[in-house]
Design brief:
By secondary structure, the chain is an alpha/beta fold. Among the domains are: 64 residues, Winged helix-like DNA-binding domain superfamily/Winged helix DNA-binding domain (Arc Repressor Mutant, subunit A), CATH 1.10.10.10; 103 residues, 3-Layer(aba) Sandwich (D-Maltodextrin-Binding Protein, domain 2), CATH 3.40.190.10. Helices cover 47% and strands 20% of the residues. It contains 13 helices and eleven strands. The strands form three sheets. Strands 3, 4, 5, 6, 9, 10 and 11 form a seven-stranded mixed sheet that branches. Strand 1 and strand 2 form a beta hairpin. The longest helix has 24 residues. The protein is elongated. InterPro entries: ArgP, LTTR, LysR_HTH_N, LysR_subst-bd, WH-like_DNA-bd_sf, WH_DNA-bd_sf. Belongs to the LysR transcriptional regulatory family. This is Chromosome replication initiation inhibitor protein. One of its GO terms (molecular function) is DNA binding. Keywords: DNA-binding, Transcription, Transcription regulation.
């Protein structure tokens, strides 16, 4: 049976997190040849390569399993130290979570605020969506995640949070310019829209479902910022799908209007966490689930 050397696992973790041997070596206060040797020793111990060298540095399936294990051990150690020494707070607990951008822009930070005020935590929020979010858990880059996928990975469990409702909005000036005769297939062809990234097909699916219009038939910007969606819509530059939760004030004050009151897109969100989560990590899970269920539609 192979006994894992956590000094070697720590080297693998830093190489992947820092995306380089030199930075990883500095983080661990060792030389670059030393950290390269640690990775080599770990690969020899398990009998297979653990990283794919390149830009970016990627982990192999075996490397993913080792990193996931290492992160779980770190969770247990953090929980143990917090329980044994609750008054000692000189070293922050590092927590990496994968969350979709719209949740961060609307409710997630409010959910985390009580925990961040109470404990010394160094939070790393990784913005990811769908399968990409699941991969962050699988690779060990995140220990918990908000996503629109219900089925958890082995060793994890999921909790239903509720529905995030999206509506198609624009400013009044934009409506007058492009939709004076109503929102229809022809008027949508002329109206600029926006997507988050190349993988974001939410707007395309909405338009295709309700107006039988293909994405190739209208123009669309690509900007990876939930806040930019709101800003561009308010500037009368685009029409776009935005979480209703994000623009309650703008809707109430008439700054933005719902272009299709009879249509909306609802995306059910789930919180994924380790089955054996305890201590501080368990409190974080409980806060996220409780707050998510409070603000999202159930």
């Amino acid at each position: 049976m192979i006994n894992l050397d956590y000094k070697l696992l720590s080297a693998l973790n830093e190489i992947v997190e820092q995306q380089g041997f030199e930075l990883a070596a500095k983080k661990l206060f060792i030389s670059q040849p030393a950290i390269s040797l640690r990775l080599k020793n770990l690969e020899e111990k398990v009998g297979q390569p653990l990283v794919i060298r390149g830009h970016p540095i990627r982990v192999t399936p075996a490397g993913e399993k080792l990193l996931s294990h290492f992160k779980m051990v770190q969770q247990l150690e953090n929980d143990l130290m917090t329980n044994l020494f609750p008054t000692i707070s000189s070293h922050p607990v590092k927590i990496s979570l994968a969350v979709n951008a719209d949740s961060i822009a609307t409710w997630f930070l409010d959910a985390m605020a009580p925990i961040l005020k109470k404990y010394l935590i160094e939070m790393n929020l990784i913005i990811a969506n769908g399968v990409e979010t699941l991969n962050k858990l699988r690779s060990g880059q995140a220990v918990g995640a908000v996503m629109n996928i219900e089925s958890p990975l082995p060793g994890y469990r999921s909790f239903k949070l509720g529905g995030m409702n999206y509506i198609l909005v624009a400013s009044k000036d934009f409506q007058k310019k492009y939709f004076s005769q109503g929102v229809n297939k022809e008027s949508l062809k002329m109206a600029p829209s926006i997507n988050y990234d190349s993988k974001d097909n939410m707007h395309q699916n909405f338009i295709s479902k309700h107006f039988d219009l293909n994405a190739s038939e209208y123009s669309s910007h690509t900007i990876s910022s939930s806040e930019a969606f709101v800003d561009l819509a308010k500037r009368s530059l685009v029409c776009c799908l935005i979480p209703q939760l994000q623009i309650e004030r703008e809707l109430a004050e008439g700054e933005l209007i719902n272009l299709c009151p009879n249509y909306r897109l609802s995306e059910t969100l789930y919180w994924h966490s380790w089955v054996l989560v305890k201590g501080l990590n368990k409190q974080i899970s409980q806060e996220i689930v409780a707050y998510g269920r409070q603000v999202l539609e159930n």
